[in-house]
Design a protein that fits this description.
The protein is an all-alpha fold. It is built from five helices and no strands. The longest helix is centred in the middle third of the chain and has 39 residues.
């Protein structure tokens, strides 16, 4: 059974009588209003996304700088990498894969063979 209620066909510009929109047809004002609303919400979303990105990277930079106040904190990169790391792709050629697997590549020590740490 076919419903005669307007749905997406009404906003998509379906003609009356073709079965998609039934007898209801949107006027140009409705379509222009929907397009204006879509544009306004898209701009609002973009501005919110950009502001969130700025606030997140600022917070990460400050959190990294605050680590310098703790004498026992072991950091491997500068505070600038808290922001710059979002724009630089990861580089596996930096030696990290070898560094992570180095312990497994080396022959076991006597203590490891004996089972003592």
């Amino acid at each position: 059974m076919h419903s005669r209620q307007p749905g997406l066909g009404a906003l998509a510009g379906a003609r009356p009588g073709d079965g998609a929109a039934g007898a209801h047809s949107p006027g140009p004002d409705l379509l222009n209003g929907a397009a204006l609303l879509d544009t306004a919400l898209s701009i609002l979303f973009g501005v919110t996304l950009l502001a969130s990105a700025v606030l997140l990277t600022t917070w990460l930079y400050r959190a990294r700088k605050n680590l310098e106040a703790f004498p026992g904190a072991e950091v491997t990169m500068g505070a600038g990498w808290a922001v710059g790391g979002w724009f630089v792709p990861p580089r596996p050629a930096r030696g990290r894969p070898y560094g992570a697997g180095r312990r497994r590549l080396a022959p076991p020590t006597e203590a490891e063979l004996a089972g003592t740490p």
